[in-house]
Write a structure and sequence with these properties.
The chain is mainly α. The chain has a single domain, classed as Orthogonal Bundle (Arc Repressor Mutant, subunit A). A three-stranded antiparallel β-sheet has the order 1-3-2. Strand 2 and strand 3 form a beta hairpin. The chain is elongated.
Length: 159
Amino acid sequence: MDYTDILIPIRKIVRSINLDSKKIQKECGLSIPQILALTFLSRAENYKCTQLELRKFLELNSSTVTGIVARLEKKGYLAKLPSQGDKRATQLSLTSSGAEILKKAPPLLQEQLVLKLSQLTADKIKIIQNGLELLVEALGAEDLDAGPILTIPEPENFD
């Protein structure tokens, strides 16, 4: 049996995510994880959070989040502030520049996908879900950590 009819749509999904990432990078100079970090801060109480809270939201490892925070801080989109209760701890705070660049950022692919999925019937959603679960099983990827957010890894030399 030829499995090309399965492999091509998978490749299209991967390419779609990569092309969206490149488009966003070109349009606003930010990676998807950086936009997601700024979005999280924009919705946080007083536009502040800890790095741990951000890491849990992004579901990325500490070193990756440290890099994201460092690049956003260097661009002036977030600031590290001393914590009120513990001066050794810091809080991340969205700056006015960060809020402005976030307004200019194009909608993410996952937002468009959620909109399209919301227009499908429950039966079609279940078919898609079942098919994707079978695919994950076929890939042996059941135990991989994955959050509900579509991201690609932050490049180490990204500026």
